[in-house]
From TrEMBL:
Enzyme class: transferase
Full protein name: histidine kinase
Record keyword Transferase present: yes
GO terms for cellular component: plasma membrane
Transmembrane segments: none
Lineage: unclassified sequences, metagenomes, ecological metagenomes
Length: 353
């Protein structure tokens, strides 16, 4: 009775279909949506009445079930979009005696997704154009400030020298931001070819962390590295260096003085998992939702820290794209504010003999 009531009050198209695609029943809402009477459907072949075709369309969920696939498909017809689902009706002999078939109009949602995609593409083009336009004047400013410092620094009084140094530092920060935006744009458009080489990941991790030891010492942080020496992988070295450097730098930046950072490796059957764990300020649930998103810049505070990054929130987004291009995964865990965080990434791995 409940199924019968649902069939009669359902707002989407609902049909009972025979194994030969004959329409056995259709609900009142289905007739209204399609604009036909019940007698126009009963006993007719579904794909002929619904799609004007002489055979099941590619997205037909009933056809998919008969082929051993999942009974769900997206259908585009007449400028409209639909999600079609089907569930097999099985008898006591485990035979398919029909299908419960529903069709839901998702045109509004699909059009919104298309519009968002267009806006996203426009944003990427605009950002790429702006950053390219910035590169030339930025290079000129940086070139002249470097010239002043290197060739005429002795002639400048301390106040003027500090101003020129501040301009130079600002140029360096802006240059880094421009580079990040261009890199994110290239990764997003999939126009990058990885330069893959066989590499010892353990050596790479130690090299990157050694280069950031000075930064860690400024906060009196304890850094523990517990990784296997047998981490031979095939990767784009420069891009994986960027990922490791980004995760380690973030751990240092957001861990209060006298805290601890631990880098570990775990060798699984077909992947290596690297983790960077800290005793830092952690993440809220809301922050965890956006941390890997493009321009996912967040203000983080806790344990006496109040930190806003100078970047655009692109570092972890770029890291995610790089790891995914390698066929790996990247994710994070945090128990909340003041409870630290752990970032993980995996890379495909097979023991190389």
């Amino acid at each position: 009775m409940e199924l019968e009531a649902l069939f009669n009050v359902g707002l989407d198209v609902m049909m009972l279909i025979s194994p030969d695609f004959e329409i056995l029943r259709i609900n009142p809402a289905g007739c209204k949506i399609v604009g036909k009477k019940e007698e126009d459907f009963i006993g007719k072949i579904c794909y002929e009445v619904m799609h004007g075709m002489d055979q099941p369309i590619d997205g037909c969920p009933c056809r998919k079930i008969k082929l051993g696939e999942a009974g769900v498909g997206e259908i585009s017809q007449g400028g409209m979009y639909f999600i079609a689902t089907a569930s097999p009706i099985i008898n006591d002999n485990n035979e398919i005696t029909g299908f419960a078939h529903t069709i839901k109009n998702i045109t509004e949602r699909k059009n919104a997704e298309i519009e968002v995609k267009k806006i996203d593409e426009l944003k990427s083009v605009l950002l790429k154009s702006i950053t390219h336009e910035l590169k030339t004047p930025l290079s000129v400013i940086k070139g002249f400030t470097d010239l002043l410092i290197n060739n005429h620094g002795s002639k400048l009084d301390m106040g003027m020298k500090n101003i020129v140094l501040e301009i130079s530092n600002g140029c360096n920060r802006l240059e880094k931001l421009v580079g990040s935006i261009l890199e994110a744009s290239r990764l997003k458009s999939a126009k990058i070819q990885l330069e893959l080489t066989k590499t010892n990941l353990a050596s790479l991790i130690r090299e990157v962390t050694k280069g950031l030891e000075g930064f860690a010492r400024t906060r009196n942080l304890e850094v523990e590295i517990d990784i296997s020496d047998e981490l031979i992988v095939i990767i784009d070295v420069e891009r994986i260096i960027d990922v490791i450097g980004n995760l380690f730098t973030n751990a240092i930046k957001y861990t209060p003085p006298n805290g601890k950072i631990k880098i570990q490796s775990e060798i699984k059957e077909e992947e290596i998992v690297i983790s960077v764990k800290d005793t830092g300020i952690g993440f809220t649930e809301a922050q965890k939702e956006i941390v890997f998103k493009e321009f996912g810049k967040i203000k983080r505070n806790g344990q006496g820290l109040d930190v806003t990054s100078n970047g655009f929130g692109l570092g972890l987004y770029i890291s995610k794209k790089i790891i995914e291009m390698h066929g790996g995964r990247i994710w994070m865990e945090s128990e909340g504010l003041n409870n630290g965080s752990a970032f993980f990434f995996s890379l495909p791995f097979k023991k190389i003999k």
